[in-house]
Fold this protein.
Amino acid sequence: MDYSKVLSSTVKSIKPSGIRKFFDLLGDRKDVISLTVGEPDFQTPYHIREVGIESLERGRTYYTSNDGILELRQEICNYRNRRFGLTYNPKKEVIITVGGSEAIDLGVRALVEPGDEVIIPIPAFVCYGPIVELAHGVPVYIETKPEDEFKLTPEALKAAITPKTKLLILPFPNNPTGAVLTRDELKAIADVLRGTDIMVLADEIYGELTYGFKNTPFAAIDGMWERTITVSGFSKSYAMTGWRLGYLCAPQELVSQMHKIHQYAIMCAPTTSQLAAIEAVRNGDADIAMMRDEYDRRRKYILDGLRRIGIDCFEARGAFYVFPHIGGFGLTSEEFCQRLLDEKGVAIVPGTAFGDCGEGYARISYAYSVDHITEALEKMGEFVEELKK
Amino acid sequence: MSEENKFEFLQLLENDARLTADQLAVMLDKEVGDIKRQMKLYEQNGVILGYKTLIDWDKTDREYVTALIELKVAPQRDRGFDRVAEKIFNYPEVKSLYLMSGSFDLAVFIEGRTMKEVAYFVAQKLATIDSIVSTATHFVLRKYKDKGVVYGPAETDERGQL
Ligand SMILES: Cc1ncc(COP(=O)(O)O)c(C=O)c1O
Protein backbone atom coordinates (compact mmCIF):
# COMPACT_ATOMS: atom_id res chain seq x y z
CA MET A 1 0.00 0.00 0.00
CA ASP A 2 1.22 3.48 -0.77
CA TYR A 3 0.73 5.08 2.61
CA SER A 4 1.85 8.48 1.38
CA LYS A 5 -1.39 8.64 -0.61
CA VAL A 6 -3.63 7.93 2.35
CA LEU A 7 -1.96 10.00 5.02
CA SER A 8 -3.06 13.56 5.68
CA SER A 9 -0.75 16.03 3.99
CA THR A 10 -0.98 18.30 7.01
CA VAL A 11 0.24 15.59 9.33
CA LYS A 12 2.98 14.56 6.94
CA SER A 13 4.24 18.12 6.72
CA ILE A 14 4.76 18.37 10.49
CA LYS A 15 8.32 17.89 11.68
CA PRO A 16 8.97 15.52 14.57
CA SER A 17 10.09 17.15 17.83
CA GLY A 18 13.66 18.38 17.89
CA ILE A 19 14.11 17.31 21.50
CA ARG A 20 13.24 13.75 20.66
CA LYS A 21 15.87 13.80 17.94
CA PHE A 22 18.48 14.54 20.55
CA PHE A 23 17.14 11.97 23.00
CA ASP A 24 17.36 9.38 20.26
CA LEU A 25 21.07 10.21 19.94
CA LEU A 26 21.43 9.37 23.61
CA GLY A 27 19.89 6.00 22.86
CA ASP A 28 20.18 3.77 25.88
CA ARG A 29 23.71 4.78 26.78
CA LYS A 30 23.86 4.25 30.51
CA ASP A 31 27.13 6.08 31.18
CA VAL A 32 25.78 9.50 30.25
CA ILE A 33 25.58 12.35 32.76
CA SER A 34 22.42 13.94 31.51
CA LEU A 35 21.14 17.46 32.11
CA THR A 36 18.44 17.10 29.51
CA VAL A 37 15.29 16.11 31.33
CA GLY A 38 12.33 18.49 31.38
CA GLU A 39 10.64 17.16 34.49
CA PRO A 40 11.21 17.37 38.25
CA ASP A 41 13.57 14.91 39.92
CA PHE A 42 11.32 14.89 42.97
CA GLN A 43 8.77 12.15 43.33
CA THR A 44 5.18 13.25 43.81
CA PRO A 45 4.82 14.11 47.53
CA TYR A 46 3.62 11.03 49.37
CA HIS A 47 0.42 12.50 50.79
CA ILE A 48 -0.69 13.08 47.20
CA ARG A 49 0.34 9.63 45.99
CA GLU A 50 -1.41 8.11 48.97
CA VAL A 51 -4.76 9.61 47.98
CA GLY A 52 -4.32 8.12 44.50
CA ILE A 53 -3.44 4.72 45.96
CA GLU A 54 -6.41 4.79 48.33
CA SER A 55 -8.77 5.74 45.53
CA LEU A 56 -7.66 2.64 43.63
CA GLU A 57 -8.03 0.46 46.71
CA ARG A 58 -11.56 1.73 47.15
CA GLY A 59 -12.30 0.96 43.53
CA ARG A 60 -12.89 4.54 42.42
CA THR A 61 -12.11 3.61 38.84
CA TYR A 62 -14.91 5.21 36.84
CA TYR A 63 -15.13 8.10 34.39
CA THR A 64 -15.58 11.53 35.89
CA SER A 65 -17.71 14.28 34.41
CA ASN A 66 -16.21 15.61 31.17
CA ASP A 67 -14.82 18.78 32.66
CA GLY A 68 -13.40 16.90 35.63
CA ILE A 69 -14.43 16.29 39.23
CA LEU A 70 -16.25 19.42 40.41
CA GLU A 71 -14.45 19.34 43.75
CA LEU A 72 -11.12 19.57 41.92
CA ARG A 73 -12.32 22.44 39.74
CA GLN A 74 -13.52 24.17 42.89
CA GLU A 75 -10.14 23.65 44.60
CA ILE A 76 -8.31 25.02 41.56
CA CYS A 77 -10.51 28.12 41.61
CA ASN A 78 -9.86 28.52 45.35
CA TYR A 79 -6.14 28.21 44.73
CA ARG A 80 -6.08 30.74 41.90
CA ASN A 81 -8.09 33.07 44.04
CA ARG A 82 -6.00 32.81 47.22
CA ARG A 83 -2.73 32.92 45.30
CA PHE A 84 -3.43 35.48 42.55
CA GLY A 85 -6.78 37.08 43.37
CA LEU A 86 -8.31 35.65 40.18
CA THR A 87 -11.96 34.59 39.99
CA TYR A 88 -13.26 31.72 37.86
CA ASN A 89 -16.55 29.90 38.06
CA PRO A 90 -15.70 26.23 38.75
CA LYS A 91 -18.84 25.03 36.99
CA LYS A 92 -18.31 26.94 33.76
CA GLU A 93 -14.80 28.28 33.43
CA VAL A 94 -12.47 25.36 34.12
CA ILE A 95 -11.65 22.14 32.27
CA ILE A 96 -9.42 19.46 33.74
CA THR A 97 -7.24 18.15 30.93
CA VAL A 98 -4.71 15.45 30.14
CA GLY A 99 -1.69 17.55 31.01
CA GLY A 100 -1.19 21.16 30.07
CA SER A 101 -0.52 19.65 26.65
CA GLU A 102 -4.17 18.90 26.00
CA ALA A 103 -5.19 22.31 27.27
CA ILE A 104 -2.90 23.95 24.70
CA ASP A 105 -4.45 21.81 21.98
CA LEU A 106 -8.00 22.72 23.08
CA GLY A 107 -7.24 26.42 23.15
CA VAL A 108 -5.71 26.47 19.70
CA ARG A 109 -8.35 24.27 18.10
CA ALA A 110 -11.23 26.25 19.57
CA LEU A 111 -9.92 29.53 18.19
CA VAL A 112 -7.93 28.97 15.03
CA GLU A 113 -9.50 28.89 11.58
CA PRO A 114 -7.61 28.10 8.38
CA GLY A 115 -5.24 30.96 7.59
CA ASP A 116 -5.40 32.54 11.05
CA GLU A 117 -2.05 33.67 12.31
CA VAL A 118 -0.81 32.62 15.73
CA ILE A 119 2.11 34.51 17.21
CA ILE A 120 4.61 32.30 19.00
CA PRO A 121 7.67 33.74 20.73
CA ILE A 122 10.62 31.37 20.35
CA PRO A 123 12.70 29.62 21.59
CA ALA A 124 9.76 27.81 23.12
CA PHE A 125 8.36 24.46 24.08
CA VAL A 126 8.01 22.46 20.90
CA CYS A 127 4.29 21.82 20.64
CA TYR A 128 2.74 25.17 19.79
CA GLY A 129 3.68 25.44 16.10
CA PRO A 130 2.66 21.89 15.13
CA ILE A 131 -0.67 22.19 16.98
CA VAL A 132 -1.38 25.43 15.14
CA GLU A 133 -0.50 23.76 11.82
CA LEU A 134 -2.81 20.85 12.59
CA ALA A 135 -5.58 23.42 12.94
CA HIS A 136 -4.52 24.86 9.54
CA GLY A 137 -3.38 28.03 11.23
CA VAL A 138 -0.16 29.83 10.40
CA PRO A 139 2.49 30.06 13.13
CA VAL A 140 4.21 33.44 13.15
CA TYR A 141 7.39 33.16 15.14
CA ILE A 142 8.95 36.02 17.05
CA GLU A 143 12.58 35.39 17.85
CA THR A 144 13.25 36.67 21.33
CA LYS A 145 16.72 38.09 21.86
CA PRO A 146 19.53 37.30 24.25
CA GLU A 147 19.99 41.03 24.89
CA ASP A 148 16.35 41.11 26.07
CA GLU A 149 17.00 38.01 28.21
CA PHE A 150 14.69 36.15 25.81
CA LYS A 151 11.65 38.16 26.86
CA LEU A 152 8.86 39.04 24.45
CA THR A 153 9.00 42.80 23.95
CA PRO A 154 5.96 44.96 23.11
CA GLU A 155 7.80 46.30 20.07
CA ALA A 156 8.41 42.85 18.63
CA LEU A 157 4.80 41.91 19.30
CA LYS A 158 3.47 45.03 17.63
CA ALA A 159 5.60 44.36 14.57
CA ALA A 160 4.27 40.83 14.23
CA ILE A 161 0.58 41.69 14.39
CA THR A 162 -1.38 41.67 11.12
CA PRO A 163 -5.11 41.74 10.39
CA LYS A 164 -4.98 37.95 10.39
CA THR A 165 -3.56 37.61 13.89
CA LYS A 166 -5.94 35.52 15.97
CA LEU A 167 -3.93 34.38 18.93
CA LEU A 168 -0.78 35.08 20.90
CA ILE A 169 0.90 32.22 22.72
CA LEU A 170 2.52 33.56 25.86
CA PRO A 171 4.91 30.87 27.12
CA PHE A 172 6.42 32.40 30.26
CA PRO A 173 8.10 31.30 32.54
CA ASN A 174 9.76 29.80 29.52
CA ASN A 175 11.00 26.38 28.56
CA PRO A 176 13.83 26.27 27.35
CA THR A 177 15.27 29.68 28.31
CA GLY A 178 14.03 30.10 31.89
CA ALA A 179 12.99 33.64 30.89
CA VAL A 180 10.17 35.32 32.79
CA LEU A 181 7.99 38.39 32.31
CA THR A 182 7.45 40.67 35.27
CA ARG A 183 4.13 42.32 35.99
CA ASP A 184 5.28 45.53 34.31
CA GLU A 185 6.47 43.67 31.25
CA LEU A 186 3.14 41.86 31.04
CA LYS A 187 1.36 45.21 31.31
CA ALA A 188 3.36 46.47 28.34
CA ILE A 189 2.28 43.41 26.34
CA ALA A 190 -1.31 44.01 27.43
CA ASP A 191 -1.12 47.61 26.21
CA VAL A 192 -0.39 46.34 22.70
CA LEU A 193 -3.35 43.95 22.77
CA ARG A 194 -5.90 46.24 24.37
CA GLY A 195 -8.45 47.35 21.81
CA THR A 196 -7.76 44.40 19.48
CA ASP A 197 -9.57 41.05 19.26
CA ILE A 198 -6.36 39.12 19.66
CA MET A 199 -6.71 36.26 22.11
CA VAL A 200 -3.98 35.01 24.42
CA LEU A 201 -3.04 31.49 25.42
CA ALA A 202 -0.90 31.92 28.52
CA ASP A 203 1.06 28.73 29.15
CA GLU A 204 1.77 29.17 32.85
CA ILE A 205 2.68 25.59 33.60
CA TYR A 206 5.84 26.89 35.32
CA GLY A 207 3.97 29.73 37.02
CA GLU A 208 4.87 28.51 40.51
CA LEU A 209 8.53 28.11 39.65
CA THR A 210 9.91 31.64 39.66
CA TYR A 211 12.78 32.77 41.83
CA GLY A 212 13.07 35.96 43.78
CA PHE A 213 9.62 37.20 42.79
CA LYS A 214 6.06 35.93 42.48
CA ASN A 215 4.83 35.35 38.95
CA THR A 216 1.83 37.34 37.77
CA PRO A 217 -0.68 35.45 35.63
CA PHE A 218 -1.48 37.29 32.43
CA ALA A 219 -5.21 37.06 33.21
CA ALA A 220 -4.56 39.21 36.29
CA ILE A 221 -3.47 42.19 34.16
CA ASP A 222 -6.16 44.83 33.78
CA GLY A 223 -8.58 43.96 31.00
CA MET A 224 -6.83 40.72 29.99
CA TRP A 225 -9.03 38.17 31.82
CA GLU A 226 -11.63 38.22 29.06
CA ARG A 227 -9.15 37.37 26.30
CA THR A 228 -6.95 34.87 28.12
CA ILE A 229 -6.97 31.10 28.19
CA THR A 230 -4.71 30.17 31.08
CA VAL A 231 -3.00 26.81 30.81
CA SER A 232 -1.52 25.26 33.91
CA GLY A 233 -1.22 21.87 35.52
CA PHE A 234 0.29 19.54 38.01
CA SER A 235 3.33 18.19 36.14
CA LYS A 236 5.93 20.75 37.13
CA SER A 237 4.83 22.43 40.34
CA TYR A 238 3.70 19.25 42.13
CA ALA A 239 6.14 16.86 40.41
CA MET A 240 3.26 14.93 38.83
CA THR A 241 4.35 14.55 35.20
CA GLY A 242 3.36 10.89 34.87
CA TRP A 243 -0.14 11.50 36.23
CA ARG A 244 -0.93 13.43 33.05
CA LEU A 245 -3.05 16.15 34.58
CA GLY A 246 -3.46 19.79 33.72
CA TYR A 247 -6.22 22.35 33.40
CA LEU A 248 -7.32 25.48 31.68
CA CYS A 249 -9.26 28.47 32.93
CA ALA A 250 -11.05 30.81 30.55
CA PRO A 251 -14.29 32.77 30.10
CA GLN A 252 -17.30 30.46 29.79
CA GLU A 253 -18.04 31.36 26.17
CA LEU A 254 -14.68 29.78 25.31
CA VAL A 255 -14.87 26.92 27.78
CA SER A 256 -18.25 25.77 26.47
CA GLN A 257 -16.69 25.34 23.01
CA MET A 258 -13.44 23.75 24.18
CA HIS A 259 -15.62 21.48 26.31
CA LYS A 260 -16.97 19.86 23.12
CA ILE A 261 -13.53 19.04 21.73
CA HIS A 262 -12.45 17.61 25.06
CA GLN A 263 -15.70 15.66 25.41
CA TYR A 264 -15.36 13.97 22.03
CA ALA A 265 -11.60 13.47 21.92
CA ILE A 266 -10.78 12.67 25.55
CA MET A 267 -13.99 12.12 27.58
CA CYS A 268 -12.26 13.00 30.84
CA ALA A 269 -8.82 13.19 32.41
CA PRO A 270 -7.65 10.15 34.43
CA THR A 271 -9.80 9.67 37.53
CA THR A 272 -7.01 8.51 39.87
CA SER A 273 -4.97 11.56 38.95
CA GLN A 274 -7.88 13.91 39.51
CA LEU A 275 -8.54 12.52 42.97
CA ALA A 276 -4.88 12.82 43.92
CA ALA A 277 -4.79 16.34 42.50
CA ILE A 278 -7.56 17.45 44.88
CA GLU A 279 -5.15 16.66 47.72
CA ALA A 280 -2.35 18.44 45.84
CA VAL A 281 -4.14 21.76 45.39
CA ARG A 282 -5.72 21.61 48.82
CA ASN A 283 -2.65 20.71 50.86
CA GLY A 284 0.35 21.04 48.57
CA ASP A 285 1.43 24.67 48.97
CA ALA A 286 4.27 23.68 51.30
CA ASP A 287 5.51 21.04 48.86
CA ILE A 288 5.68 23.61 46.10
CA ALA A 289 7.62 25.98 48.36
CA MET A 290 10.05 23.24 49.37
CA MET A 291 10.78 22.24 45.78
CA ARG A 292 10.99 25.84 44.62
CA ASP A 293 13.61 26.60 47.29
CA GLU A 294 15.62 23.58 46.23
CA TYR A 295 15.46 24.51 42.53
CA ASP A 296 16.50 28.04 43.40
CA ARG A 297 19.64 26.86 45.18
CA ARG A 298 20.58 24.64 42.26
CA ARG A 299 19.84 27.47 39.85
CA LYS A 300 22.28 29.75 41.62
CA TYR A 301 24.79 26.95 41.79
CA ILE A 302 24.65 26.07 38.11
CA LEU A 303 24.70 29.73 36.99
CA ASP A 304 27.78 30.29 39.12
CA GLY A 305 29.37 27.06 37.91
CA LEU A 306 28.84 27.91 34.25
CA ARG A 307 30.38 31.33 34.70
CA ARG A 308 33.37 29.79 36.46
CA ILE A 309 34.11 27.52 33.51
CA GLY A 310 33.80 30.44 31.12
CA ILE A 311 30.32 29.84 29.74
CA ASP A 312 28.15 32.92 29.59
CA CYS A 313 24.59 32.72 30.84
CA PHE A 314 21.90 35.29 31.55
CA GLU A 315 20.19 34.94 34.90
CA ALA A 316 17.17 32.77 34.18
CA ARG A 317 14.54 33.36 36.84
CA GLY A 318 11.91 30.74 36.02
CA ALA A 319 11.19 27.05 35.34
CA PHE A 320 14.19 24.75 35.92
CA TYR A 321 16.32 25.58 32.93
CA VAL A 322 19.21 27.81 32.10
CA PHE A 323 20.05 28.75 28.53
CA PRO A 324 23.77 29.44 28.30
CA HIS A 325 25.59 30.86 25.31
CA ILE A 326 27.80 28.13 23.86
CA GLY A 327 28.36 29.79 20.50
CA GLY A 328 31.78 31.27 21.17
CA PHE A 329 33.78 28.15 20.43
CA GLY A 330 33.49 27.88 16.67
CA LEU A 331 30.92 25.10 16.84
CA THR A 332 27.20 25.05 16.10
CA SER A 333 24.95 24.17 19.02
CA GLU A 334 24.41 20.70 17.64
CA GLU A 335 28.13 20.14 17.16
CA PHE A 336 28.89 21.42 20.63
CA CYS A 337 26.32 19.14 22.24
CA GLN A 338 27.25 16.16 20.11
CA ARG A 339 30.95 16.50 20.92
CA LEU A 340 30.29 17.16 24.59
CA LEU A 341 28.36 13.92 24.61
CA ASP A 342 30.94 11.93 22.65
CA GLU A 343 34.02 13.28 24.39
CA LYS A 344 32.80 13.81 27.96
CA GLY A 345 29.60 11.81 28.24
CA VAL A 346 27.59 14.88 29.24
CA ALA A 347 24.23 15.48 27.59
CA ILE A 348 22.57 18.88 27.17
CA VAL A 349 19.98 19.88 24.57
CA PRO A 350 21.02 22.12 21.65
CA GLY A 351 19.05 25.35 21.61
CA THR A 352 18.08 24.71 18.00
CA ALA A 353 15.72 21.96 19.22
CA PHE A 354 13.45 24.85 20.25
CA GLY A 355 13.65 26.86 17.05
CA ASP A 356 16.44 28.00 14.74
CA CYS A 357 16.99 31.09 16.84
CA GLY A 358 18.31 28.80 19.59
CA GLU A 359 21.53 28.55 17.58
CA GLY A 360 24.47 29.41 19.80
CA TYR A 361 22.65 28.26 22.93
CA ALA A 362 21.83 25.10 24.82
CA ARG A 363 19.18 24.15 27.34
CA ILE A 364 20.49 22.84 30.62
CA SER A 365 18.04 21.46 33.14
CA TYR A 366 18.83 21.75 36.83
CA ALA A 367 16.21 19.26 37.94
CA TYR A 368 19.12 17.16 39.18
CA SER A 369 21.00 16.68 42.44
CA VAL A 370 23.87 19.00 43.32
CA ASP A 371 26.29 16.06 43.05
CA HIS A 372 25.09 15.30 39.56
CA ILE A 373 25.32 18.95 38.50
CA THR A 374 28.82 19.21 39.98
CA GLU A 375 30.04 16.23 38.03
CA ALA A 376 28.54 17.52 34.79
CA LEU A 377 30.04 20.99 35.33
CA GLU A 378 33.49 19.51 35.91
CA LYS A 379 33.34 17.60 32.65
CA MET A 380 31.96 20.61 30.78
CA GLY A 381 34.81 22.65 32.21
CA GLU A 382 37.36 20.19 30.82
CA PHE A 383 35.60 20.21 27.47
CA VAL A 384 35.62 23.99 27.22
CA GLU A 385 39.31 24.11 28.19
CA GLU A 386 40.14 21.65 25.44
CA LEU A 387 38.14 23.65 22.91
CA LYS A 388 40.04 26.79 23.78
CA LYS A 389 43.39 25.16 23.00
CA MET B 1 23.31 35.52 58.85
CA SER B 2 19.61 35.88 59.60
CA GLU B 3 17.95 33.21 61.75
CA GLU B 4 16.11 31.90 58.70
CA ASN B 5 19.38 31.66 56.77
CA LYS B 6 20.98 29.81 59.64
CA PHE B 7 18.26 27.15 59.70
CA GLU B 8 18.48 26.75 55.93
CA PHE B 9 22.25 26.45 56.22
CA LEU B 10 22.03 23.79 58.93
CA GLN B 11 19.31 21.89 57.11
CA LEU B 12 21.34 21.81 53.91
CA LEU B 13 24.33 20.43 55.78
CA GLU B 14 22.19 17.96 57.67
CA ASN B 15 20.96 16.57 54.37
CA ASP B 16 24.33 16.58 52.68
CA ALA B 17 27.45 16.98 54.76
CA ARG B 18 29.63 17.03 51.67
CA LEU B 19 28.43 20.45 50.52
CA THR B 20 31.50 22.65 50.50
CA ALA B 21 31.71 26.17 51.84
CA ASP B 22 31.98 27.38 48.23
CA GLN B 23 28.81 25.60 47.21
CA LEU B 24 26.91 26.75 50.28
CA ALA B 25 28.00 30.32 49.70
CA VAL B 26 26.64 30.34 46.15
CA MET B 27 23.36 28.69 47.10
CA LEU B 28 22.74 30.96 50.06
CA ASP B 29 23.98 34.18 48.47
CA LYS B 30 26.72 34.60 51.08
CA GLU B 31 30.44 35.21 51.11
CA VAL B 32 32.56 32.06 51.41
CA GLY B 33 34.30 33.67 54.39
CA ASP B 34 30.98 34.12 56.19
CA ILE B 35 30.06 30.49 55.60
CA LYS B 36 33.40 29.25 56.86
CA ARG B 37 33.19 31.43 59.96
CA GLN B 38 29.67 30.27 60.72
CA MET B 39 30.66 26.64 60.27
CA LYS B 40 33.61 27.00 62.62
CA LEU B 41 31.36 28.67 65.18
CA TYR B 42 28.83 25.84 65.01
CA GLU B 43 31.61 23.30 65.38
CA GLN B 44 33.05 25.14 68.37
CA ASN B 45 29.79 25.56 70.21
CA GLY B 46 28.67 22.01 69.45
CA VAL B 47 25.69 22.75 67.21
CA ILE B 48 27.51 20.77 64.53
CA LEU B 49 28.84 17.62 66.19
CA GLY B 50 30.22 15.69 63.28
CA TYR B 51 29.95 14.70 59.63
CA LYS B 52 29.19 11.04 59.06
CA THR B 53 28.27 8.75 56.21
CA LEU B 54 25.17 6.57 56.04
CA ILE B 55 26.22 3.04 55.19
CA ASP B 56 23.88 0.18 54.54
CA TRP B 57 26.01 -2.56 56.04
CA ASP B 58 23.42 -5.13 54.96
CA LYS B 59 24.76 -4.69 51.44
CA THR B 60 28.25 -5.67 52.59
CA ASP B 61 29.64 -8.93 53.99
CA ARG B 62 30.12 -7.47 57.43
CA GLU B 63 28.45 -9.46 60.21
CA TYR B 64 26.56 -7.28 62.64
CA VAL B 65 23.38 -7.04 64.66
CA THR B 66 21.60 -4.06 66.14
CA ALA B 67 19.41 -4.17 69.23
CA LEU B 68 17.17 -1.74 71.05
CA ILE B 69 17.33 -2.19 74.78
CA GLU B 70 14.69 -0.65 77.00
CA LEU B 71 15.98 0.11 80.44
CA LYS B 72 14.02 0.93 83.54
CA VAL B 73 16.16 2.97 85.88
CA ALA B 74 15.81 4.13 89.48
CA PRO B 75 16.79 7.79 89.24
CA GLN B 76 19.48 8.94 91.60
CA ARG B 77 19.07 11.74 94.07
CA ASP B 78 20.36 15.06 92.61
CA ARG B 79 21.66 13.54 89.38
CA GLY B 80 18.48 11.99 88.00
CA PHE B 81 19.35 9.80 85.04
CA ASP B 82 22.51 11.59 84.00
CA ARG B 83 24.95 9.50 85.94
CA VAL B 84 23.59 6.19 84.60
CA ALA B 85 23.37 7.64 81.10
CA GLU B 86 26.99 8.66 81.22
CA LYS B 87 28.06 5.22 82.37
CA ILE B 88 26.16 3.69 79.48
CA PHE B 89 27.13 6.03 76.66
CA ASN B 90 30.82 5.58 77.36
CA TYR B 91 30.66 2.02 76.06
CA PRO B 92 31.66 2.12 72.37
CA GLU B 93 29.07 -0.62 71.65
CA VAL B 94 26.35 1.93 72.44
CA LYS B 95 25.42 3.76 69.22
CA SER B 96 22.52 5.85 70.52
CA LEU B 97 21.03 6.61 73.85
CA TYR B 98 17.81 8.45 74.58
CA LEU B 99 15.92 9.35 77.75
CA MET B 100 12.30 8.48 77.06
CA SER B 101 8.88 9.32 78.38
CA GLY B 102 6.51 6.40 78.93
CA SER B 103 6.84 2.92 80.33
CA PHE B 104 10.64 2.76 80.36
CA ASP B 105 13.37 5.32 80.87
CA LEU B 106 16.37 4.81 78.63
CA ALA B 107 16.44 3.53 75.06
CA VAL B 108 19.84 2.13 74.14
CA PHE B 109 20.83 1.17 70.60
CA ILE B 110 23.65 -1.32 70.57
CA GLU B 111 25.61 -2.80 67.76
CA GLY B 112 27.56 -6.04 68.03
CA ARG B 113 28.92 -8.69 65.75
CA THR B 114 26.52 -11.43 66.89
CA MET B 115 23.38 -11.78 68.98
CA LYS B 116 25.45 -13.59 71.56
CA GLU B 117 27.81 -10.69 71.84
CA VAL B 118 24.91 -8.28 72.37
CA ALA B 119 23.25 -10.56 74.91
CA TYR B 120 26.52 -10.82 76.78
CA PHE B 121 26.91 -7.05 76.81
CA VAL B 122 23.41 -6.58 78.23
CA ALA B 123 23.86 -9.21 80.90
CA GLN B 124 27.39 -8.30 81.93
CA LYS B 125 27.58 -4.56 81.42
CA LEU B 126 24.10 -3.07 81.55
CA ALA B 127 22.12 -5.30 83.89
CA THR B 128 24.83 -5.05 86.51
CA ILE B 129 24.65 -1.28 86.83
CA ASP B 130 23.20 -0.55 90.27
CA SER B 131 20.28 1.69 89.48
CA ILE B 132 19.04 -0.36 86.51
CA VAL B 133 15.84 -2.09 87.52
CA SER B 134 15.07 -4.08 84.40
CA THR B 135 16.09 -4.57 80.77
CA ALA B 136 14.17 -5.69 77.67
CA THR B 137 16.17 -6.48 74.56
CA HIS B 138 14.72 -6.23 71.01
CA PHE B 139 16.84 -7.26 68.07
CA VAL B 140 16.46 -5.27 64.87
CA LEU B 141 15.47 -7.57 62.03
CA ARG B 142 15.63 -5.06 59.25
CA LYS B 143 16.41 -1.37 58.89
CA TYR B 144 13.96 0.35 56.54
CA LYS B 145 14.81 3.96 57.13
CA ASP B 146 17.36 5.83 59.20
CA LYS B 147 18.15 9.54 59.51
CA GLY B 148 15.47 10.25 56.93
CA VAL B 149 17.04 7.95 54.38
CA VAL B 150 15.32 4.82 53.08
CA TYR B 151 17.48 1.71 53.15
CA GLY B 152 16.82 -0.28 50.03
CA PRO B 153 17.96 -0.65 46.47
CA ALA B 154 19.86 2.37 45.15
CA GLU B 155 17.56 4.81 43.38
CA THR B 156 17.86 5.04 39.63
CA ASP B 157 16.81 8.02 37.53
CA GLU B 158 13.96 6.60 35.49
CA ARG B 159 12.99 9.89 33.92
CA GLY B 160 12.56 9.61 30.19
CA GLN B 161 13.16 5.88 30.41
CA LEU B 162 9.89 4.43 31.66
C1 LIG C 1 6.11 25.12 28.53
C2 LIG C 1 5.43 23.82 28.68
N1 LIG C 1 4.10 23.75 28.51
C3 LIG C 1 3.44 22.59 28.63
C4 LIG C 1 4.09 21.41 28.92
C5 LIG C 1 3.27 20.17 29.00
O1 LIG C 1 3.23 19.62 30.26
P1 LIG C 1 2.14 18.59 30.72
O2 LIG C 1 1.38 18.13 29.53
O3 LIG C 1 2.90 17.48 31.39
O4 LIG C 1 1.25 19.32 31.68
C6 LIG C 1 5.47 21.42 29.08
C7 LIG C 1 6.22 20.17 29.37
O5 LIG C 1 7.40 20.07 29.24
C8 LIG C 1 6.16 22.65 28.98
O6 LIG C 1 7.49 22.72 29.14
Residues A 38, 99-101, 125, 171, 175, 203, 205, 233, 235, 241, 246 surround pyridoxal-5'-phosphate (CB under 6 Å). Chain A touches chain B at residues 23, 28, 34, 36-37, 39, 41, 242, 293, 297-298, 300-301, 304, 370-371, 374 (CB under 8 Å).
